[in-house]
Amino acid sequence: MWSERRIERTGDGSYALRLTEQERTLLRFLPGELRSLLEAEPDDPGLRRLFPRAYEDDRDEAAFRELMGNELLAGRTRALEVLAETAKAERLTSEQAQAWLTALNDLRLVLGTRLDVSDESLLEDLAEDDPLAPELALYAYLSWLQEQLVEALSAEY
Known about the structure:
The protein is mostly helical and 157 residues long. It has one domain. The protein is 59% helix and 5% strand. The chain has a three-stranded antiparallel sheet. α2 packs across α3 and α3 packs antiparallel against α4. The model has no long low-confidence stretch (mean pLDDT 88).
């Protein structure tokens, strides 16, 4: 797919970003789209993977949502803000890299849910004239970037 590493851990424990300008623009734009959806449509079916049920019992679930819902939303929103704010950076701190991981995962989950992507989906066999090709390509890119970030976070120096 893409050959050049975009995210690497450095000797000082930070994370070097080697993103193209197009990638940086995309990573500044996407978080705002998801933040808008979280604020305007909290019950949107595309968000169900971000906030799975914690309890089978409806009353227990409602109590949990009342207690923790705002905190869960605030954490996701902050991670999206960090991604947008640092997309132009040359390096990330460990905390920023963790926020990127959360934000990339959230973007992938929502997009994958909307596209009904499953483990059996073969993105390599995607036809260019498929009407979902742009969205599926975006999903594949976010997956690839998240994988690079996970590898960088796992690297030891």
